[in-house]
Amino acid sequence: MSDTTHVDDDSTAPRPRAVELVAELHAILDELQTVDLSPCTDAELTEVAAATERAITRLTVAGDRQIDHAEARDLPRTTGCRTLTQFMTHRLRISNPMRRRKQMDATATRTSLGGEKLPPEHPCLAEAFAQGTVGTAHVQATLDVLDRIPNAVDHDIKVAAERQMAEIAEAHTPADITQLGARLLAYLDPDGTLADDTERKRRRNLWINRQRADGTAKMTANLTPELAARVTMLLAVWATPGMNNPNDPDSPTGSVEDADPEALVAAAERDDRTPAQINHDALNALLKAVLDDGLLGKSHRGLPVQLIIKADLDDLIREAGLATTATGTLLPIPDLIEMAGEVQPWLAIFKDATAVPLHFGRGKRLATREQRLVSFARPDGEVCSAPGCGQPATHVDMHHAQRDWAKGGLTDIDDLAPACPRHNRMVGEKPGQYTTHIERSGPDEGRCVWRLNAEPGAPPNPEHLNRRPDLPRRFAHHLNTVRDEIHGPTSRSGDQSRPDRSRPDAVGDGDSGRRLELAYRQLVHPPAPPKHFTTQPLRPVEAALARILADHR
Fold it and tell me: Where's the HNH nuclease domain (predicted)?
């Protein structure tokens, strides 16, 4: 699919000075990137590097001004974007538009809807930023400090604090700004009396950050006194040495009040975890108990409220690689196998004949549980199908992607695609909405294609797919290519037996046809002994999975 757009070219019209300046800037940058630096003395090289960094900052200031003019001309709407943030993301390719907008409000002269010029919120910081004496990281660190000044502080004190922080930013590193800002905040409110209940509620937050390469994720939180009291009580009764230790099969689980005293003493003597690790394991044990007791309900967006995990059979056989949960979490295969006795596995097999109805035509409007499960099981089904969206399967609806239900769309599995509520509401024929369709041929067959509608007469926006689910498959392709280039084509162990996964909808051996079919079976109701796996003849795929799970019970 082409990502190119048509632009009218009138060579006779004089080019605006802004266009000429940008062309000259790129020409200078081309030369600056390749210029010989060896004639520079140490002092000159240092000054050149420092001046280049100042120029980078000043370019950001110029870019903020251009964004402001684009907003004043209503360019986001003209190009089909609903908001300035969306325009900054998709048209200008700004990596963090929310922080950039916050920076613009603080340091840029903005234009109101009536054409009035609005001064920056923090003029001293804005002046230093325009001169290039502070960089973007300095501005962000300063804004983080100023945002923490309580609302009850007088206006003149806030103005003085802004000037003080701008002065600090010009002479210190971003890390220093954070430390010195904390000292200033303590000076402004030494007793903490200015932070009322409204202030505490405004600052409450809890984030699960993105997973690192090893699968772990960092949690950050700012708790209200009420939640802090509950969490500390939880840790008092569940996070005790010897309790809820996943590394000790004889460790008591649950509350310390329900544990056998002698078993707890013995487990505590064997416990070599740190206090932080004990807290972690206590929270994990509590959430497991909540899931097991069904306190979260029976269904969420059509999916059962339990751990739903998708894994590749080849990875299960070799006991390596990563599985994906319906919440988007990556789970190492060895951890999945260890959890085999705790989760209720479902086996999904794509094949030509189906045991479960997945094509309802106009008979149903909403997708069934089976359709949602098979949608998640597809190679690209763990996230919203909209380009760039990372909302996991537990946060999506089933979107009639080929044709809207109101216009005669069918509730068939090969016409449905996962879409988060925000993107699902943005589908329509008006400018600023999306049109979608299912790709019916080629390597992306069966996937949902999205196009953002532009204003009539404006160049059409390109079509896009969400390429996030393709990363593991594409990496495997590149890895095999590199190995072949280095070592030559070889019959490495296991290569010939691997199924062809070059197509996005390829799931296992024998897959064929465009229609996605599912045969699924509930393999075991935990806790169940291994013999439940052999009560009926199993197909080879089921037998392989059953053997792996049985070996680890």
Answer: 370-425
